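Morning F.,

Quick status update on the modeling queue. The single chain you submitted on Monday has been processed. Sequence for confirmation:
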Amino acid sequence: MIILLIVFFLVLAAVEYYSRRHGLERIFYDVQPSRSLLEPDEEFTIHSTIENHKFWFVPYVSMSENFPVGICVPGEEKNISKEVISLQVYAHSAATPSQQLTSTTLSSSFYLMPNQKLVRSVTAFFPKRGRYLFLGCNMHGGDFLGIRDAYQKFTQFKEVVVMPRQVQSPQLEQMLGGVIGDISVNRFIFEDPMLTVGFSEYTGREPMRDISWMQSARLGRMMVKNYDHTVDLSVTILLNVQSVLNAFEDEEKIDECCSLIRAVCEQLEQNHIKYRLMSNAIPAGLSTLSADTEQGLGSKHFYRIMELLGRVSQGACESFSFTLRRACLSSEQGRYHILVTPSLSDSWKEQLHQLRELTSDKVLVMTPELLHQSDEEADGKEGKSA
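Structure tokens below.
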């Protein structure tokens, strides 16, 4: 009996020694959001994977996952807390090596069997526009007897971008309706007499020079040529995030500006009008300094702009006067400009006047106040001007 007890204690000591030396070795962690581009309040799933690559079980693991601030995890309220973490250098991030960030921490505990792969899934959503980072977890693992606590930090860098919220405003629809109606009318005014796309019967209203005598002789009735449009009418959307350089605008106003641009893009998509984005905003998490895009149309182009708007921060890479000068250099016949700004400023009044002259006054200025106007305040107004 004594021999059995001695053997038992020796085995127990050996197990304890091994678990204390190699408690969290060959344990791996990964986190993966189910989607990277989201609508506000849209639910998605966070998959956390913990793998034990040892032939030895881990009797106790306590894990604290570093989720972004602002995340909502229904049903896990009692396990969520906030703490300050030290962020290391990440590629394409605006963080510095010594930067401290506030993180939402989701705590859980479990055990791991030998060679086990444990996948934990929770449903979450973000109520606000922005770029959100999942930064890994801190893991504690007890030894076999629970005497000593081992610690391991797993660094991850996964991001989720939340698009601007959709807005409904009769005043906004009225303003955009006027611009889009003007574009639709001008689409059929400019014609290229060198590019014939078809023929139609002569009604007496067409000029004599448009009559096709060859088609008329072949069909036995007067036919006129139909021409293609000479100008590809399009829209440049200009976003300003700082009315005064080096002065931060209110975050709520920037959110509303991004929502205004989303409404503009949706209207242009519905009417099949090409558009592009120019801005002095810095898109967080990208290597580019500005949130500019090429001209385009379609869902891929739309969601590219929505992602950029979700990344828009309060910092500006240039003054809005310089952004307007860039717009003047690229202005052309048939191009309309829609300016969205948190507030109006006299510092870029001269550049705005130049843009109006170059585009025959095809410039519309919008501010977040448009979303808060009553119907009486909006009567008789087609838009705001600087």
